[in-house]
Amino acid sequence: MTPRTFIVTTAHRSEFPNPITFNEGAPLTVGEEYQGDEGWENWLFCSTPGQEAGWVPKQIIERLDGQRARAREAYTARELDVHAGERLIASRSLNGWLWCTRADGTASGWVPQANLAEHTRRCVIQEEVSGCGIAACANILGQTYAEMKATANAMGIHAEDPSLWSDSQYVRRLLAAGGVTAAAGETPFESWEKLPDLALLAIKHHQENGRDFWHWVVFERSDDQMHVLDSASYLPSNVRTDFAAMQPKWFIAVNRTSA
Fold first, then answer.
1. What SS3 string covers the chain?
2. Domain ranges of the chain
3. Does domain 132-255 have CATH number 3.90.70?
């Protein structure tokens, strides 16, 4: 499966401290099939020399005769202990379980799919015609538009102020107020692949009476997947992957670590 991001909705703790683990071709003795109310089908209780017995997915078992079998591939029954709210990257699905890796890459293991909800990125929509900068900062800081606007107004930043429409400093101030650092300068756009994992992008760049104008959007890369959060209210989807249509002029690299 293509790696997907999930959020833990219900904590999970393994009941098997010594999970069965074996290599491709390992001899297996097959026992009972799992019966339970969880809907976990096609799990067989197996043993192999030198290991404690454990549950193995039927798909990786090559039956020989009677209870004798061998492994079609390497496998571990290691489960991942997780707590509610944790972010995981799932890379394989088997019989009601997902093979997951913590977002920081420190540990991997199986987690019941019923304990997880797929993470869907949502985009804050600008509530003012010239509010794209405020909306972009809200998307980076995880705030609503109203929350970000209140912070901006308290700092003397107002979306209707024409002096800000060609300014790139006020977004840095807003991000810094939220504990996020942004690069001091703007970097010319070369390609989507060369962008940092998080950046403010200037698209729809144009000039009027010698002044530069643009539309702020947010570029994000996570789990090797790229998208752009565009706060424009008229778009059919505000999470954009139509990269050829956007044609950025430059970007500001952003780091979510504390300023």
1. CCCEEEEECCCECCCCCCCCEECCCCEEEEEEECCCCCCCCCEEEEECCCCCCEEEEHHHEEEEECCEEEECCCEECCECCECCCCEEEEEEEECCEEEEEECCCCCEEEEEHHHEEECCCCCCCCCCCCCHHHHHHHHHHCCCHHHHHHHHHHCCCCCCCHHHCCCCHHHHHHHHHCCCEECCCCEECCCCCCCCCEEEEEEEEEEECCEEEEEEEEEEEECCEEEEECCCCCCCCCEECCHHHCCCCEEEEEECCCC
2. 4-118, 132-255
3. yes
Tokens for 7, please give them: 């959020």
Fold topology of 4-118: SH3 type barrels. (2.30.30)
Query: What pLDDT, in 10s, does the model give residues 60-89?
Result: 999 999 999 999 999 999 999 999 888 888
pLDDT digits (tens, 9 = 90+) for 38-54: 889 999 999 999 999 99
